[in-house]
Amino acid sequence: MPIHYLVLLLAVLSETIGTAALQASQQFTKLLPSVIVVIAYAISFYFLSVALRAIPLGIAYAFWSGLGIVFIAGIGYLVYGQKLDLPAILGLGMILSGILVIHLFSNTSTH
């Protein structure tokens, strides 16, 4: 995997940590989770900006949002006990399929 995709993955993981902490911050009423939100989002945007040096914006954003949705749905299920029914699981699978189609078959994506 090219380094710019690893950097983009770090951006997604940082964003996912920030979003999970956002839930834990209880609308910014808990200090530690609130600080984690701000730091994780700052790290995430930094890594996204680095990834954008090599990856087109639309492709990077598709990866960012798609993987972020899947990761947060998993965290919501595992950590917060949020249920995923069959349509939700199928939809998440379609998001992952779309990311794979872009990566494997699009000439717009950098390889």
Can you describe this structure?
This protein has 111 residues and is an all-alpha fold. The longest helix has 22 residues, at 3-24. The protein has 4 helices and no strands. Helix 1 (3-24) packs antiparallel against helix 2.
Features:
single chain, 111 residues, mainly alpha, 77% helix, flat
Largest sheet: none
What is the residue-mean pLDDT, rounded to a whole number? 93
**Strand and helix order:** HHHH
Question: How many runs of DSSP E, i.e. beta strands?
Answer: 0
Give the overall silhouette. flat
Query: What is the first-to-last residue Cα distance?
Result: 8 Å
Secondary structure layout plus pairing:
Blueprint: H1 3-24, H2 31-51, H3 57-78, H4 86-105
Helix pairs in contact: 1-2, 1-3, 3-4
Concise structural overview:
With 111 residues, the protein is mainly alpha-helical.
